[in-house]
Amino acid sequence: MPSQSIVALKPQFSLETPMKRIEEMTLWERLYFPEVIRGLMVTGYRFWRNLTVHILHKLGLARRLQAAITVQYPDERAPYPDTFRGRHRLTLKDDGTVQCTACFLCATACPAECIYIQAGEYPDNPVEKYPIRYEIDTLRCIYCGFCVEACPCDAIRMDSGTHPGNLGFSRKDFVEDKEVLMQRSRELAEKGKEGLYEEYVKPYRHV
Ligand code: SF4
Ligand code: SF4
Predict the structure, then answer these.
(1) 145: Cβ below 6 Å to ligand 1?
(2) By residue range, what is the domain housing residue 110?
């Protein structure tokens, strides 16, 4: 049997390898104006290229070249994929009560530690608990979807198709509580994704 040689792969990085940081500006960068001029050249190139390509498109030419377009959000919108992670909602049982059993798995999985749950017990159900309070601090949330993945009973979803809110005057305005999260499920069932999106985007529209 031929002998086999084991080639040890050299790790590219080790913990001892110091990280290279560019903290010091070069003399060229410290002169300031060359960098400003370089930035203007990049911006100018993009502007004139886009303008030229759009004019050519209007004339029916250079169709294969792509030019940047601006989506006039919220008056216009780009289509979102089905996997788009929008605002959270707490799903409901057939009788309209909250599906959540206050198991804390979502709060444990949340890397931003922005889910607050206070568990309570049903008087007539010795098995299941429910959240007395369920709150998400959306200013801390990074919309990673880990809470949805962690939930064992499909009680929290991010399929509302709506953007995180950005209207508010204090931190409290950005904390979504249990009732808000349940109401979003009711609205989604009543109006559908498109209807819910229109509702949320209305305050931002110009027309
Ligand atoms: S989306 Fe991520 S950050 Fe936001 S509540 Fe869920 S787990 Fe936390
Ligand atoms: S939303 Fe899901 S994971 Fe979070 S506490 Fe409720 S049942 Fe548990």
Answers:
(1) yes
(2) 89-204
